[in-house]
Design brief:
There is one protein chain. The protein is α+β, with helices and mostly antiparallel strands. It has 3 helices and 3 strands, in the order βααββα. A hairpin with a 4-residue loop joins strand 2 and strand 3 (42-46). The protein has helices at 6-12, 18-25, 47-57, and strands spanning 3-4, 35-37, 42-46. It is globular, with a radius of gyration of 11 Å. A 3-stranded antiparallel sheet has the order 1-3-2.
Length: 65
């Protein structure tokens, strides 16, 4: 399993801002983070889950990285 954090997701979404990435990751349709690190302040996701979400919800974007 490969993990991604918010900055990685921002890149995967085509280089959106961290603020925009936060808005997107807070959507009900976005995969839930699998864990938090740094005293619960940093969320991490399974990269495959994020890639699948992008493919389903933003088919015009190809996840990078």
């Amino acid at each position: 399993m490969r993990l991604v954090a918010l900055s990685d997701i921002a890149d995967m979404l085509g280089g959106v801002s961290r603020t925009r990435a936060t808005e997107i990751t807070n959507r009900a349709t976005f995969p839930a983070p699998i864990d938090t690190v740094a005293s619960g302040k940093v969320r991490v996701w399974d990269r495959a889950d994020v890639e699948a979400w992008i493919k389903a919800h933003r088919p015009h974007q190809t996840p990078e990285g």
